[in-house]
Amino acid sequence: MKETSKALSRRLHLPDFATHYFVGQGLDIGGAADPIGQYGEVLPGMKASRVWDLPDGDPQYLTGLADNTFDFIHASHMLQRMPDPREALRHWFRVLKPGGHMILLVPDEDMYEQGFWPSRYNHDNRWTFTVFKAKSWSPVSLNLIEVIQVLGALADIRRMDVLGGSYRHGLPRFDQTLTPVAESAIELVIRKRPQDEAVAGGRINPDGRMTPADVYILTGLKVEAPRT
Fold this sequence. Notes:
The protein is of the alpha/beta class. It is 19% helix and 24% strand. The protein is built from 6 helices and 8 strands. The strands form 2 sheets. A 6-stranded mixed sheet has the order 2-1-3-4-8-7. The longest helix has 10 residues, at 85-94.
């Protein structure tokens, strides 16, 4: 199934995807068969999305693309195909602008591979993923919490979700992504912190003073003016 299209109906019920994540000029890594750019009419903040697939060059290194070029990076079920997922993440993050978002989908090893390696369902897969396990049945299992640490202080995790809401654990083993509903995946959204924010150790509101009128407009609460 086309996983980007499948994910759209879920994402449309989560406002951040339209208002914060898919905003501006994007790069869709491996998206030729099912590009996010085809949904511009329902993602109005997305100005354009360039597809980068094998004819464009190695998707792990993105050679020829300058640093800090794109407002968002989208990669649906590509990270598990990379020879070195950590190196791929470094380069995907490299071309992302500060303040932009990287949106990733990877198969969850228990819902997709279901205890077997090599993969029964996709022979291009080199790795399996989980959010975190102390022990895995997979000899090539990667914990996402550990993998993304390669991005260092610039990584601001905005979303990490195991997409099992439409997965049926009671069924015999088969590739449930062939159904119209099951995603069998993990979704990860990482914002790239601007350098000054990384140095400060977080996202901090600017200094300033709000008047009682400002507070009332925002909260509906009446406060006394500060005494001078």
